Structures are given as structure tokens and as C-alpha cells.
Amino acid sequence: MNNVPVFEVSDAVAIFNQILETATPAVAVVGEVANFKINQNKWVFFDIKDAESTLNCFMSVFNLHGVIEDGMRVEVLARPQITKWGKFSLTIQNVRPVGAGSIKRAFELLRAKLDAEGLFAIERKRTLPELPDRIGVISSTDAAGYADFIKILNERMSGISIEVAHVQVQGDAAPEQIIAALKYFNEQKNPPEVIAILRGGGSRDDLMAFDDERLVREIAASRVPIITGIGHEIDTTLTDLAADVRAATPSNAVQILVPDRREIISTLDFQLSNLINESETRLNEIETRVVDNCSRMPERIDHALSEIEYKLKFLNAALQQLNPRTILRRGYAIVRGQNGKVLRTAAVGETLIIENYDSEITATVEKISRKT
Amino acid sequence: MIKEKSLKELLAEFDEIVAWFDGDDLDIDAAIAKFEAGSKLADEIKKKLAESKNKIEIVKKKFNVSAMDRGEGDEKVDE
């Protein structure tokens, strides 16, 4: 045993860990997941294995950004370690599904989970402002999709303020950077009216950053409405599903976001010419009404005249009835004194002149008796 | 200082004029005045659309997490 170092157990474990850390500070391992479990919603344990070997894996739930299940093929980025119980294990910093089947499965599982939470519900979708003055853009300024967006935006519309957050739109760092950019816009005192998340086409694997659970949650939580223009028309990421509006491509996002100035101008011209037409129509209506009224005037005058004639006839008849001559004809008589005035009282011996319809009679009063 | 009206405000004013013409009573003198105001607005809108450019600024802040941890750059370009 000479020349062999002697350690206490704890020291031995520490030494081995130091050697491991120096030799393989980080290692990526690919294999199939088995015995996956989450403890107390904090710690994740699983095995990663191939036909011959198995390694124990351990990670914090905060580093798990998707859904993993047994049988899935994954790549883990890990630090090898010997635990104080003497177990060799991998401490995982990142795990992601690899191979078309596993990627698709992980996507479907996460989609179902977030869907069940209501993150993709139609009722949550907000409408975008009709003519935004300020747009926040999250994209890589080196990306073709970004260049397309700006080019078409400048073609279509002017007078808009665009603030661009340059981030990675691909790779492991992308989700965190996009989340940081979303927070940056959302935390502004006067945030933009809409945020556009853009990335041009690529393989479906290139778009995996947009299926990150943390990012999808951040999108759903944004108080500023979000439009996405990610990948090609056929690609749908979970980010797209959580956004308020999904555009097929960055170019399509511009078309949805802002009207084309040529459309605005032609609409203005159309509406102005409509105003002229409208005024003309109204004027014609007024003219027709005046002409119509004029043409009906003689008829109205005739009508008024015959009405007057009728009234006159009626009045005449009424007057006839009141004429004293008419009354005398009915057998009445008028009694006057000698002075010719109509008498209301008389004295005995007084001379009266009585007029009836066809004669005048002179008479003397003999007796007056009161009517009872 | 009178603030220059935004495109949005000009378009809203124009829409108001268009809506006025849909009203029931059309006073010809008022209609002529409204029409003149409408075509003046349309000219203003066209001029605005032709003249102004979009203002694009790249946020200076770095969004990689390590830079954020170091508390680097919170300021923007042009502001």
C-alpha cells in the first residue's frame, strides 16, 4: 500500500468529482428515457439507456422546458457526478428530444398539456390595432425573414416607429433571449401597441426554440398583443398557437399588421367620389320634389277655390235664414212706434205701426196685460 | 405649439365626414363645406403617406442572459 494515497470517503468522492469535472466538465449523452418521474414538483429523476448500459439522471424541474416520457429518445447536456451515496449520476442542465418520432411526441404532449390549461383558447385571442403607430419586433436582424418584414413594411406603410429586439431565433439560447425581449417590451411604461415575433423559414428542427414551454407561457402572459411570423406556411409552433394572431410568414405578418398606403389612397379617392355622387343624388331628389310640387300647384289652387266656394254658399244660406224679411214671411211682425223705432214696451192709447210680410198696419193700444 | 395630427387622427376625421353624408338631412351649403374639408383631409393624408418614413431602431440592450446578469445595457439607440 506504499505510495498509494489514503482518503476519507468524503474526500475520495470529492477527488473523484474533481477528476470527472476536469476530464468532462460537460457531456452530451444520447439515449432512451426510462423510469421518468418528478418528485415534489421540484426534482426530476430518470434513466438514460441504450441496449447495453444505463445512466442515472437528475435535474431540477426548472431546467425541464418541455414534456419528456419513457421511451423517448433524448439528448441530455450534463455534468457527471458521484453522489454522496456513491452513485454515479448525470446532473442535467438541458434535455431535448432527438429523432423525428421523439420530437413529434414531445411536441404533441406539451401541446396537449398547454391546451388543457387553456393557453391556446380562442377566447384569449385579442384583436390587433388597426393602424399601429408603434411596433415591437423580436427577431434576429441577420435573418432573411426580418429583412423581408422591414422591406415590405416600408413598401406598404410609413410613419411607424419600429423597435427591434435582436435575439437568437434558433438554438438553445433562443427561448431565453426571446423571453427577455418579451419582458423588455412588456415592462416599458409606454409599450408598443403590438409585438411581432419573426423568423424566416428553416427546417422544423430549426424552429424547435418556438416550442419551448417557458416561451409559450411568456407569450400567453404578454399584455401586449402578439403576432407571430415563424417559418413557412406549413409550420405551426406552440408559440404560434399561443400568440394572438399567427401569420404564415414574416411577410404575411406585415400584411396583417399594416394596411397598404396605396389601398388607403384608393379608398380615400373612392369615398370622395362617392360623396360627390351622394350629393348629386340628394340634389336631384330635392329638384324632383320642387318640380313635382310646382306641377301639382294648379290642382291645389282649384281645390282651395272650390273649398272657398262651398264655404261661401253655406254662409249665404245661414245669412238668408237670419234676414228679417225671411222671418216676416214665416208669419212674424215688427212693431214700431210712430217715430219708427222698434217698440219693446207701449202705453195705452199709443199709436203703433205693425209691419208684416206684405203690409203695414196702423193700430192704437187698447189694453196692456203682462205675460205671466 | 399645435401638435401635428397623426395619420390615425386624420383618417378618423375623414371617416366622420363620410358618415355625415350618410345622415338624413343634407343641407347643400353644409355639404359643400364638408366636401371641401374632406378633400383637403384626403390631400393631407396622401401627403403624409408620401412624405413620412418608418423609424426603425435596434434596441441596444443585449438579450442573452449572461449580459443581463451583468446588468449591461438598458438604454436604447436614438432615445
What does the model show?
The complex is a heterodimer of chains A (372) and B (79). Chain A is of the alpha/beta class. Chain A has helices spanning 9-23, 100-116, 144-156, 174-186, 213-221, 238-242, 250-257, 261-295, 297-322, 324-329; strands at residues 27-39, 43-49, 54-60, 73-82, 88-97, 134-139, 161-166, 194-199, 226-230, 245-247, 334-336, 351-355, 360-364. Chain A is built from 10 helices and 13 strands. In chain A, the strands form 3 sheets. Chain A has a 5-stranded mixed barrel with strand order 1-2-3-5-4. A 5-stranded parallel sheet of chain A has the order 7-6-8-9-10, sandwiched between helices. The radius of gyration of chain A is 53 Å and the shape is rod-shaped. With 79 residues, chain B is mainly α. Chain B has one domain. The two termini of chain B are 22 Å apart. The A-B interface holds A 131, 133, 141, 150, 153-154, 157-168, 173, 176-178, 180-181, 184, 261, 264-265, 268-269, 271-272, 274-276, 278-279, 282-283, 286 and B 6-8, 11, 14, 17-18, 21, 26, 28, 31-32, 34-35, 38-39, 42, 45-46, 48-49, 51-59, 61, 63-65, 68, 76.
